[in-house]
């Protein structure tokens, strides 16, 4: 048998660009997938994702696998933009802590011994980078439908998606917040909710999808129940309340009568906070590139 090792295994139709933010001078690695062929007359729909290094492969292949059979999957091709960092690791913990969290932020001890302090509060800066730099760059690469743009984030990324919605609700049509860290910083994001509710925008027609894994509620995953840290994990769940917070916020926003906000909360069976990521990305693809209305996903 003859074997040949390829030097790399690229994601078809996908390129990586290093963009420097004028706001903080930091370099971001932006992964962009553009489908083959001509775009629709109105332009391609776009799905933007945070934590780009961790999700770009999953998002592209979930879309490509389904878009070839739209009558059976309800998914059509679209542009995927995953915003990450110049690293081969799935995450940059320090930078995402800053980029994905709202003001005012705090300073926390290092993740590792002798490491730098962890700083939060850069969400507005990061959102400005997406709006002023990333979106125009993507528009220069392909014809885009400005009315069909979606934002996905998981964990801190889900927190960022909510922050972006509450501060710039017209920036995207669909908002997908997976396992959002609503508890973070004593529920700081709820202060942004209150400001949003105090000055509801006019002519808002949007959809928010909330989700979490089954084992982000009150119960541990089976493999965690006999572990030495089972007790501390259960205590932590009482603080984070990922499922509870997400359910409550979804219902609260859907109940508003002044504006048209459709929401849906979904629990992914058998998943933990990290294992839920591929399922949540797959759902984001179905929302962002839907051919027809999603039916049950448009209900609370």
Automatic annotation (TrEMBL):
Gene3D superfamilies: alpha/beta hydrolase (3.40.50.1820). Keywords: Hydrolase. GO terms for molecular function: hydrolase activity. Pfam families: Esterase. Transmembrane segments: none annotated. The keyword Hydrolase applies. PANTHER family: SIDEROPHORE TRIACETYLFUSARININE C ESTERASE, SIDEROPHORE-DEGRADING ESTERASE (EUROFUNG). Belongs to the esterase D family. This is Alpha/beta hydrolase-fold protein.
């Amino acid at each position: 048998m003859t074997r040949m090792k390829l030097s790399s295994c690229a994601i078809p139709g996908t390129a990586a660009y290093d963009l420097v933010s004028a706001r903080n001078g930091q370099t971001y690695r932006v992964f962009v997938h553009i489908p083959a062929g001509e775009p629709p007359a109105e332009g391609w729909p776009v799905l933007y994702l945070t934590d780009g290094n961790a999700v770009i492969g999953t998002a592209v292949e979930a879309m490509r696998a389904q878009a070839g059979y739209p009558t059976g999957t309800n998914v059509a091709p679209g542009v995927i933009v995953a915003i990450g960092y110049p690293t081969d690791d799935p995450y940059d913990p320090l930078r995402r802590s800053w980029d994905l969290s709202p003001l005012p932020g705090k300073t926390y001890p290092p993740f590792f011994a002798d490491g730098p302090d962890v700083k939060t509060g850069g969400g507005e800066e990061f959102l400005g980078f997406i709006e002023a730099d990333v979106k125009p760059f993507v528009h220069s690469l392909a014809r885009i439908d400005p009315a069909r743009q979606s934002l996905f984030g998981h964990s801190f990324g889900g927190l960022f998606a909510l922050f972006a919605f509450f501060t710039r609700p017209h920036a995207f049509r669909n908002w997908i917040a997976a396992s959002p860290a609503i508890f973070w910083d004593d529920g700081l994001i709820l202060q942004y909710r209150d400001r949003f509710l105090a000055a509801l925008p006019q002519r808002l027609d949007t959809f928010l999808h909330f989700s979490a894994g089954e084992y982000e509620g009150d119960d541990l995953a089976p493999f965690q129940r006999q572990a030495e840290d089972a007790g501390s994990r259960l205590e932590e769940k009482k603080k984070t309340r990922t499922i509870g917070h997400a359910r409550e916020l979804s219902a609260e926003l859907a109940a508003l009568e002044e504006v048209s906000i459709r929401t849906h909360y979904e629990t992914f069976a058998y998943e933990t906070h990290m294992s839920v990521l591929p399922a949540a990305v797959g759902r984001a693809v179905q929302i962002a590139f839907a051919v027809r209305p999603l039916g049950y996903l448009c209900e609370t």
